[in-house]
Write a structure and sequence with these properties.
Layout: H1 2-29, H2 37-76, E1 81-86, E2 91-94, H3 96-102, H4 106-109, H5 120-136, E3 140-147, E4 156-166, E5 174-181, H6 183-204, E6 209-214, E7 219-222, H7 241-267, E8 271-280, E9 285-297, E10 303-311, H8 313-329, E11 334-339, E12 344-347, H9 349-355, H10 359-362, H11 377-390, E13 392-400, E14 406-417, E15 423-432, H12 434-482, H13 486-509, H14 515-536, H15 541-546, H16 551-561, H17 566-573, H18 577-590, H19 600-606
Length: about 600
């Protein structure tokens, strides 16, 4: 542009020189006589025009000089460096900012090769950029590392280079360059990347689960320890966490959590939540957490909120298990905990109640003081060999209380191992089975007595069977004679019954075997024999009366007729005396004796007369 302005001023100067020459010619021809008025008028008009044009040119020159000064000021003091290079990369023009960036005076930079200010490791890249610019004839941008002043001593800086290769008409081509010092920006970007890397590293290496949300509560970062809690939600990146909370714990709980996050974000006040148990809607399980929030500044300079949390579900379950174990430890059974050397570390109250030794008296000792002396050393060696082999032993053992009393117990010894499988402790459970042993003795004695009674009963029954067989033989003989002489048979039968069977019944009642069995046999025989006597003893009225009675009432009536008392009848039938009295009332009622003073025994005897 400077060359064009110089050319314009040069043309104006030539025009001025031409006008002055014409005026000199007019002064020359004024000496000539009789110049025509037309020529004179024309010359004067041209003179005025020249003066007007001269004034215009002067004003234009002043405006151009002002514009040039303004352009030069803008060019030289622009915030970026401007350079004009030849096709060979030689600097032909540079502004003050560019000279300052390159660290030399402007005059010393003219006709210098620009590549001299490009660091060695970037020169090949610069040549490629120049070649690309010549081929594409479009504006290109690249980043180069340049140095100020001498290459060996100059300080390096990062520059953004905007360049374009242009050729106007037949003029030689030039490479127009704009230099911008982006060192601070590059350093800021590097620092930002470093901060982001450090920020990401801090999150990943946090000892607890951690995630970071933006001001819009969208996920920015999350570490590996936090991922298992959100494993059912995908994707997580840039996810609105108000939706995530709602999916995990429902709208009500999610609303409370979001309010806490927003409060921390707006006020900067951290929040520490106590241990809380929440129901997971997506998994249908209970989970316990400790968590806190804190406002932070994100790598991009914006505010965010970080949440640190610990899943304490297993810890809470362990605490609950410890509570249950503590309750179980104070059970009714004696519990003893020893180390691998057998030294007692802890006992419960049941141990003191069963053995008589307090915890202070037992802790620090081995269980040898409980040995009763009933088991030899081989017994204990076999016991511990089983524990070492199977991890437990269970069986009956005899121990000794503090007062010297020896008592039986049911002992269980269990091995406790750590995560590596090493034995760390032994736990012994002891149940006092003294009462059980006593009950077993009572049962054994009762069983022995019962067995003895069974043997006696068997012998008595064998005797009864033998005598019954004899009776059956006698009855069969009597029945054979019935057809020959019914009258004689009846009399003989009655005589046989009275002389043989009834005495046998009397002896049978006195036999020493079970009352219930003997009574039942006797009753059956008595009823049948009595019926037989009635049939063959001309007691026609008695069976008709007995038909009105129940079998039990018939038995009672037969015994009453024989003159037996109520007490004897009750013992015979294995029932209460009151029950026999009730049967007697029923018999009187069925025989029509309710309102009569007649004795039941007398009435029954009169039936056979």
């Amino acid at each position: 542009m400077s060359a064009e302005v110089d050319e314009f001023f040069e043309r104006l100067q030539q025009l001025r020189f031409g006008a002055e020459a014409r005026l000199d010619h007019l002064e020359l021809i004024q000496g000539l006589p009789q110049i025509p008025d037309e020529i004179l008028h024309e010359l004067r008009v041209h003179q005025v025009e020249l003066e007007m044009q001269n004034e215009k040119l002067r004003r234009a020159q002043l405006a151009l000089e002002t514009s040039r000064a303004h352009y030069v000021e803008l060019y030289d003091f622009a915030p970026v460096g401007y350079l004009t290079l030849t096709a060979d990369g030689i600097i032909v023009e540079i502004n003050l900012t560019g000279a300052k960036l390159l660290g030399k005076e402007r005059q010393k930079l003219i006709k210098q090769r620009f590549v001299k200010f490009v660091r060695d490791e970037y020169q090949e890249q610069w040549y490629r950029f120049c070649l690309c610019a010549k081929q594409q004839d479009e504006k290109q941008t690249c980043a180069l590392s340049l140095h100020r002043g001498d290459q060996k001593e100059g300080k390096a800086f990062c520059a953004q280079v905007d360049y374009q290769y242009r050729q106007i008409a037949d003029a030689p081509p030039f490479l127009y360059i704009t230099l911008t010092d982006i060192t601070e920006r590059i350093n800021a970007e590097a620092l930002l990347k470093q901060n982001e890397s450090l920020f990401r590293t801090m999150i990943e290496q946090a000892p607890t689960g951690m995630f970071v949300l933006s001001a819009e509560l969208r996920l920015q970062q999350i570490n590996a320890l936090a991922l298992p809690v959100f494993e059912t939600i995908q994707p997580l990146n840039d996810r609105d966490f108000s939706e995530v909370f709602c999916h995990l714990w429902g709208e009500e709980v999610a609303g409370q959590i979001v309010d806490i996050f927003r409060h921390t974000l707006e006020t900067g006040e951290p929040y520490h939540a106590p241990a809380v148990c929440l129901h997971r809607q997506d998994l249908g399980v209970e989970q316990s957490f400790e968590w806190e929030t804190q406002r932070i500044i994100l790598p991009d300079g914006q505010l965010g909120v970080a949440c640190y949390f610990t899943d304490i579900t297993e810890r809470k379950q362990a605490e609950q298990a410890l509570c249950i174990a503590a309750v179980a430890f104070e059970s009714q059974d004696s519990i003893m905990v020893t180390d691998i050397q057998g030294v007692i570390l802890r006992v419960n109250q049941a141990f003191s109640r069963i053995t008589g030794y307090s915890s202070d008296e037992a802790i620090g000792k081995t269980p040898h003081f409980l040995r009763s002396g009933r088991h030899d050393e081989a017994f204990y060696q076999a016991l511990w060999a089983t524990v070492a082999d199977k991890g437990y032993w269970q069986g009956e053992i005899w121990d000794k209380r503090q007062n010297g009393e020896i008592f039986p117990g049911w002992q269980t010894i269990t091995t406790v191992r750590d995560a590596a499988g090493n034995v760390t402790h032994h736990v012994g459970y002891l149940t006092d089975i003294t009462a059980q042993k006593q009950a077993e003795k009572v049962l054994r004695d009762a069983r022995q007595r019962l067995e003895n009674q069974v043997v006696s009963s068997k012998e008595a029954l064998e005797q009864v069977k033998q005598e019954t067989a004899e009776i059956n033989t006698a009855l069969n003989v009597l029945l054979k004679h019935r057809a020959a002489d019914e009258s004689d048979t009846k009399m003989a039968l009655v005589s046989e019954v009275e002389n043989s069977i009834l005495p046998f019944l009397s002896r049978l009642k006195k036999a020493d075997f079970g009352r219930r069995q003997s009574t039942r046999l006797i009753d059956i025989l008595e009823i049948n024999l009595q019926q037989l006597l009635n049939d063959y003893g001309n007691t026609a009225n008695l069976p008709a009366v007995y038909q009105q009675l129940t079998p039990v009432e018939a038995q009672v009536a037969s015994m009453v007729r024989q003159g037996l008392s109520t007490k004897v009848i009750a013992a015979t039938l294995s029932c209460a005396s009151g029950t026999v009295s009730i049967h007697r009332k029923h018999i009187r009622k069925k025989l029509g004796l309710d309102n009569k003073t007649c004795n039941l025994t007398t009435y029954l005897l009169s039936l056979t007369e």
